[in-house]
Amino acid sequence: MRTLKTAAGRRLRATRQGASPARQAHCPIGVDDIMSTVRVTLDRLPPTAIVEHLLLRLRGHIQLLLPEIEAKGWARYGQEDQIRLMTASVRDRFNNEPKTGPAVVRCVYAQELAHICRDLLALALAEPGFEQPYPAAAS
Questions:
Q1: Is the pTM of this model over 0.85?
Q2: Half-sphere exposure (Cβ direction) of 129: Cα atoms closer than 13 Å
Q3: Is residue 136 part of a domain?
């Protein structure tokens, strides 16, 4: 079993073993795959030769994680508004990708998406109602 540590030092379970087989098949979150992409992107400024590949992978991870987060029962705990605003902000940043400029701009944008992806992963693994100051996952 793999765990992720939050900024508060708590550990999140990064496994879907407790979920039913139907739930696992519906939304498989590949924690190791997501975190390896995030690590490669954030390790240092990604080379321009692979930045398009990293952007493609990060976009796919974000598109998988956003519906997973939105489907949780946040309203029961009064967290629905915060989650709705956060997902709208992520979608806005996601849709305003820089198209022109030097290659370094695309590399920095990939790093921004990696930070977003890491935080979304922590939210996707967290249970609604669980209070934590900042859901940043660090491995």
A1: no
A2: 4
A3: no
8, containing H or E segment: none
Transcribe 50-92 into DSSP letters. HHHHHHHHHHHHHHHHHHHHHTS--GGGT-HHHHHHHHHHHHH
Cα separation, 40 vs 46, whole angstroms: 7
Q: How far apart are CA 51 and CA 55, in angstroms?
A: 6
Residues constituting the chain: 139
Encode pLDDT of 17-37 as tens digits. 334 444 444 556 889 999 999
Is residue 139, in this structure, part of any structural domain at all? Answer: no
What residue type is 127 in one-letter code? E
Would the pLDDT of 15 be above 80? no
State CA 108 to chain mean position distance. Answer: 17
93 residue type, one letter: R
Chain segment 49-66, per-residue pLDDT in tens:
899 999 999 999 999 999
Give the total number of structural domains in the chain: 1
Dist CA 6 CA 139 (whole Å): 9
Domain residue limits at 105? 6-125
